[in-house]
Design goal:
Shape: globular
Strand content: 15-25%
Number of helices: 13
CATH architecture of the largest domain: 3-Layer(aba) Sandwich
CATH class of the largest domain: Alpha Beta
CATH topology of the largest domain: Aspartate Aminotransferase, domain 2
Distance between the termini: 22 Å
Helix content: 25-40%
Order of helices and strands: HHHEHEHEHEHEEEEEHEEHHEEEHHEH
Number of strands: 15
Length: 377
Amino acid sequence: MDAIQMVDLKKQYQKIKGDVDKAVLDVLASSAFINGKPVQDFSSNLAKYWGVKHVIPCANGTDALQIAMMALDLQPGDEVITPSFTYIATTEVVALLKLKPVFVDVDPETFCIDPQEIEKAITPNTKAIVPVHLYGHAAPMEEILAIAEKHNLFVIEDTAQAMGAEYKFSDGRIAKAGSLGTIGCTSFFPSKNLGCYGDGGAIATNDDSLAEKLRMIANHGQKVRYYHDMIGCNSRLDTIQAAILDIKLRHLDEYNKARTDAADYYDESFKDIPQITVPFRAPYTRHAFHQYTLKLEGVDRDGLSQYLATKGIPSMIYYPVPSHRQKAFENFGGASFDLPVTDWLTSRVISLPMHTELWKDQQDFIIEEVKNFINGL
């Protein structure tokens, strides 16, 4: 059995090596390293896949969030509602732009922002909601969009962990996570469901005028070279990464199915263990399983992680310290937020290996050792 990886990018690359190598060599031959044709091709193809009118590529997922908030003209002191149970990038950009992060709790089953908690947190200063489709499970967007419409708020979707996840509305309409709000943001960090071989990100919208503004902000605030109409930044997806992503986009549904198959196998193996709660799957979404995250009860979580490591099995805690308890947010009143579900989850979650090349014998070994630890063997 090969060594178990948390994410096995090497084996994934080996399966598409011929196409990727040719695409990279074609870029090298063209020498159009910035804004070459593959950038436009990928943007167009991703827009079709995502089901949106406009995709604006950028340098990374954090930039995508920052550019989105800049384009919406959010001003210092404006309040942005966001979960604390997420990667720091989601809330970091709120603080960076001198906006006020308002942390709310999450649903203990889906790990995603709780609409009831959003309602409680809205004030006259609230301008936007940033739902995070955490671990690949879509947030309850129908309820969130209704709240946003009621209070005239923007919705910026953080889709970094859920590219390809689907959302089903109560009327039967199905759309991709990230295509539902005012703006959708994603990351192409290598370990993502759709990942490049460096850094990359993208922004999605169906609003024509907003798309133009997003493009300008990502390009130094200019539409015509050397004529800068607004303050922007320099955030580009380079041509090599775009060429790689365009190839991997063709395989994204296949990749997500492999993740779902692996999750199904884990689920079946852990279903009768009372100390383990397998990932919840709400009927309104098709989970993308960026992570496979268990909730533990009556189990030494850190002890399990250390035990698995001795067996050559990696695991991760996403996230041991939520945003509102990070030192960086002390000046934003982070510790004043009462988020019991978030605090409860941070002490109980553990993520097992999950990727497109996870083989059954590897999963069997992982499952056996998790059970051995729980049973005290």
